[in-house]
TrEMBL record:
Gene3D superfamilies: 3.40.50.880. This is Putative Glutamine amidotransferase class-I. Pfam families: GATase. One of its GO terms (molecular function) is transferase activity. It comes from the Bacteria.
Length: 195
């Protein structure tokens, strides 16, 4: 295969006994990376990449549920992966977990609540996005309408279901960010001779 994309989910890597298939998923991603197969992860997928490379996933102090500014750090501002993006941009986030970085990994961006929003590896063809640029407004609106109120964080980084739904309706289309990140990801892999 040429590329693996690992999507999000409601599972928690710090509670693998609840979802034991996660052990195999992490091993699978690690094996792919060791074979130099490029891997991109979104949210849970990013956490799986982080853990497969030696990081640790843990329950975060604060959930991030909603639309948030993602800030590029100095390393991110000069990286081909973030070419054509402003020093901060808005994307959709929905997670209650975060992670530390394994050896050889670095972060390119952060939010107020989470230090690692975009991660890459110096040693392996791995890119992790802790946020969800792959979701469209329509996906999010459908999920918001059909989900139970208990799914939504209320607090410093979550406004609850109704406010989130209204904010989503007022957001511009999200496909542009996803397209830029995917094109830049392919360029990043090519720069390293991985695709």
């Amino acid at each position: 295969m040429d590329l693996i994309i690992v999507h999000g989910g409601s599972q928690h890597l710090w509670n693998k006994e609840e979802d034991p298939w996660l052990y195999k998923e992490i091993a699978y991603v690690r094996e792919a990376l060791e074979k130099n197969i490029p891997v991109i992860g979104f949210c849970l997928g990013s956490q799986i990449i982080a853990e497969s490379l030696g990081g640790e996933v843990y329950l975060a102090d604060e959930q991030e549920v909603g639309w948030f500014k993602i800030f590029l750090n100095l390393e991110g501002r000069g990286n081909i992966l973030l070419k054509s993006l402003k020093e901060d941009f808005i994307s959709f986030l929905w997670h209650s977990d975060h992670y530390s970085l394994g050896e050889g990994c670095k972060t390119l961006s952060f939010t107020e609540a989470a230090a690692n929003q975009i991660i890459i590896s110096d040693s392996f063809p791995a890119i992790g996005f802790q946020f969800h640029p792959e979701y469209t407004k329509e996906n999010i609106e459908t999920y918001l309408i059909t989900s139970d109120e208990s799914c939504f964080a209320v607090g410093k980084y979550g406004t609850g279901k109704e406010s989130f739904l209204q904010e989503t309706k007022n957001m511009p289309k999200t496909y542009g960010l996803f397209k830029v990140l995917m094109n830049n990801s392919i360029a990043w892999f090519k720069e390293r001779g991985k695709v």
